[in-house]
Fold these 2 entries.
Entry 1:
Amino acid sequence: MVFVLEEYRFTGRRASDIAASVEKGVGSGALPPGTLLPPMRELAGVLGVNPNTVAAAYRTLRERGVIETDGRRGSRVRGRPASAPRDELRPAVPPGTRDVASGNPDVRLLPRLDAALAAAAARYEQQPTLYGHDPVAPELARPARAGFDADGVPSGPLAVTSGALDGIERVLNAHLRPGDAVAVEDPGWGSMLDLMAALGLRVEPVAVDDEGPSAAGVEQALQRGARALLVTSRAQNPTGAAVSGRRAAELRAVLAAHPQVLVIDDDHGHGIVDVPLHPLGGVTRHWALVRSTAKAYGPDLRLAVLTGDDVTLDRVRGRQRLGPGWVSRVLQYAVADLWSSGLVDPAAVARSYGERRGALVAALGERGVRAHGRSGMNVWVPVADETGVVARMLAAGWAVAPGSRFRVRSGSGVRVTVSGLEPAEVALLADALAAAVRPAPAGRFD
């Protein structure tokens, strides 16, 4: 049987087939964002199936982040379904255009991997990794734990995941179910927002300023039922925010009244920042902190170290055993070797990014343009006309990232990645931005 919504034909008699029919329409663009889907009973009647079958199909679509349901208002295709990742909003970079939109680290600051991989291969040859070995290599665990101790991260077991986002997803899956609400920074990491949709989780946006997420905003999100809080400790993407000691104390006070909330610290900026870490773990019963190697040692290493409370790490490691099993020990050996080799000087890397970031923020300020960038490799520029600024910058020979990739409810803006900037280019970029930007209201990133 089929059901026609204007020009789209729904098909299927099983829940999986009906869900697949809707996903096909979303993926092809025939069911654009905001499309109101047929009421379950109406669609069931036309398809000749039980209403429970359509209900199950819609439930599957919600869990996959394809649709959202608002009580009596019905079910609609999400404004940005999980099948349409935010990276698709990345503007094309024409030949000859300077790309300050990609968010990649400066390859000149990344270490060579040949020696570390050769040493890892030699260690593997001496003792090949076999089934049943500890998934975390002791050679990596020791420096990882020492680093956490030095930064005041509470004691806890360790796990190794395939990057920060993999670790965060595993922690969320360990405690939450589709439909649960999560307090997330706004603006925030686009991939994180995509992950929320893919897991069927509801986003409770929290306003951000230079010192991190607003304590009042977190309190409001928790009061509205958020079961988890995600915080980027340093080098927040896209704003460059870093949680200060004062803000951390305010957030801990809020969390102390909500001991049931899961708290996740994302420390992907480790190794490229010169501001201290102020972790939030240990205030609530369940917490985790994930530390990625991507920005300091190269995105292709795909490795992050995760710690947290005993229950969370037990669930994460148990589920990991039933999937990939473990992250390659060869990669773990290589990262451990990189940490001990001194090939990367975190202070020098942080200074390099800081000089370029600070120079751009200062140059924009001199031209009357407000910008933010306390840490990391990105600068956030609030604007009144985001689309217009992106287009004018492209016309001027610069590709900047549209803020829509990072926003839920916060105001418009553009993100500029400074990692590829040369000192002589800062003034040119600031001139182009000043010419492209329209006045934006003062305040936080909202």
Note: The chain has 15 helices and 17 strands.
Entry 2:
Amino acid sequence: MHKKSILQKLAVFGFIFVFLFSFFQPVEAATDDSLKQIQDKGELVVGLSADYPPYEFHQTIKGKDEIVGFDVSIAQKIADDMGVKLTIKEMSFDSLLGALKTGKIDMIISGMSPTPEREKEVDFSDPYMTVQQKVVVRKSDKDKYQTTNDFNGKKVGAQKQTTQEELAENELTGSTVTSLQKVPDLILNLKSNKIDGVVLEGPVAEAYVSQDDSLAISDIEFVNGEKQTAIAMPKGATSLEKQVNSSIKTIKDDDLLKEYQKEANDLMFQKSNFFTQYGSYFVKGTLYTIALAAIGVLCGAVFGSALALLKLTNTRWLRWPATWYIEFVRGTPLLVQIFMVFFGTQLLGVDVSAFASGCIALSLNSAAYVAEIIRAGISGVNKGQAEAARSLGMTQSQSMRFIIMPQAIKNILPALGNEFVTVIKESSVVSVIGVTELMFMTGVVQGASFKPFIPLIITSLIYFVLTFSLSRLLGVAERRMRTSD
């Protein structure tokens, strides 16, 4: 016992000694391997919203769609200094911070300004540009808006979750702020008299005004209108931040930003036939929309069939989970489900692409509605059919397969067709995570062409052709089934 007591005391003294020794050691700055991780994978993934010329926008170069702009040039410079390949991931502006925090991207270079709220969530580099905020108005109204007080009782637009939105709320006295995701949508609202002004960064405002004679920049000057733009990185990524600041210093010292801006302006104002320049965007978006809808409905039908059968079973531990799932999915917005799949899979350590996330979300959503369609179809078949099948010696699974389901499918075909049409239209929601479907490409063309309305007309016609054609095909299938009866 005595020997054991001595050993215990020595252990305690040893622990205290080690603790005090480590405590009084010189404190060194915590290091991280964020830069090394990027260099090891050989790729820098930058997130942005490419509807913000001249910062970042789409342009057709030598017949190929590319994202260009001086933010992209800055990103390329940083990637070159790291010795890695640059990869651009495009999504809506208000999804960028979530993508950064969940590891979908390595940094954000999208004309983002450091704010106290954002600095709580991410770290920022040294600023690479200082710009003034402007208010774009209709040219005929320019004389009406000379001071911030002139917008009292008026509607003003700003991009969602931006410093422009905050500025409009704080300094345009008495105004009502309309917040939208896309700048082209704000310009369209302005031109159609839905709002009376749009708060934009100076370079962006000048770009739109130079391309549209019906717009003008107001003489309004904001008290806090000078904003700095910087690069957002994950919290604690000190080695990455140091490398990025080094690249920014080189850009400033060598005055490279002027060169980048000139390149962006030249690309922004290149002109050619509208359909020649942007036709491929609509084709690509249409193909993605069809693929999303087909995968969503096909996978949804398989999963939905299983859910319908589970909900019809007499076993509670099978029926209840199916019921809960259906009620949860039908009771929550598709947009929420898309974000849950896109960001949730990353938190679980699984890197799922935006397209795959969109397919999964649409499939899971469609399954809940298809399950109810199939359940109603099966319940609509006369119970005597099942009893007759059983009297002929069929098992329950055989009667379901050969007797009940063929009759149920004829009953539910119109509803399944409507679900397919609905998924085609609802697939537009996945554009928020950067899936290049039809509505996403419409926004791309709006931003690149400075024509906010024409792309919408083209897109509406494409959607109509898709849904109308599908409805006619379903009508043919229904008539053939009636003939077979």
Note: The longest helix spans residues 274-312.
